[in-house]
Specification:
Distance between the termini: 82 Å
Number of helices: 3
Helix content: over 70%
Structural class: mainly alpha
Radius of gyration: 33 Å
Largest sheet: none
Number of strands: 0
Oligomer: single chain
């Protein structure tokens, strides 16, 4: 028995496998570029604007409620100071949000 392997090419030299390797490398490179690509400027600005609107809304409500609670503690008008100042805080927050949204984009 003789081992005559001169007709059979080794696995690494098969043109289909080398072509597949090249295609895999190109696909990995395209995927790497897609994943690492920075976001467009518009989406970053919209993200910041959304965070600002959320902060205005939450800050107005929490600030108004806190000030109302303090007024209630000193004046003894519980819960009216809290409720009135909570609504004032919401109104101020909405006014700020309307001002932010009516401003022309930068």
């Amino acid at each position: 028995m003789t081992d005559d392997t001169s007709d059979v090419a080794p696995i690494g030299e098969d043109p289909r496998i080398s072509t597949l390797d090249e295609r895999l490398k190109a696909a990995r490179q395209r995927e790497e570029e897609r994943v690492n690509k920075p976001a467009p400027d518009g989406s970053d600005a919209n993200y910041r604007l959304g965070n600002r609107v959320l902060a205005e809304l939450v800050g107005g409500m929490v600030g108004g409620a806190f000030i109302g609670w303090v007024i209630d503690q000193f004046a003894g008008t519980s819960p009216w100071g809290l409720l009135v100042m909570l609504f004032v805080g919401v109104a101020v927050a909405f006014r700020n949000i309307i001002r932010i949204s009516s401003r022309p984009p930068e």
